[in-house]
């Protein structure tokens, strides 16, 4: 079984969905997962103002209530001059995929989510992303230095691969994140849009298989 997840590490509903996706894969050891990076706010240049913070906190509260994942609200409120650009962190996931394609991509994806939503790190900063990415890969048994991670992250080819992911997500007809697909015979079939518990996903997959 091949699953394809279109998501963005700085999408709060994707963050809530991450643990459900991990649970689903634990229950389905025969399943493989490909993550297509969404680029939710790739290239954004506007500074996050108070209204933008409150808008996100409202969504964070909903995600927390539904999924139970923790959020560091003070980390968001204390940010000054922050540009909510999701391209750098999407590119960091792509960097990990380039450097260690055999590594567990969902655990890498979730590590970047944790860095932003819980540790309140600046996941638009290449040095921060390199530290998180290299540490996570090392913990997963695929050691990479922060220097190599940062060097790869800055390459034009990595920028282009991330942009390709964004284009693929659009071509798949994705209009919201997360969106999960089942790949069957070269065709992508939509399993669900948005957050859903693992039990519900399993039911959808079973009915699709039948």
Automatic annotation (TrEMBL):
Q: Which Gene3D superfamilies match?
A: Glutaredoxin, putative protein disulfide isomerase domain
Which superkingdom, per the lineage? Bacteria
Protein name (database record) = DSBA-like thioredoxin domain-containing protein
Q: Which residues form a coiled coil?
A: none
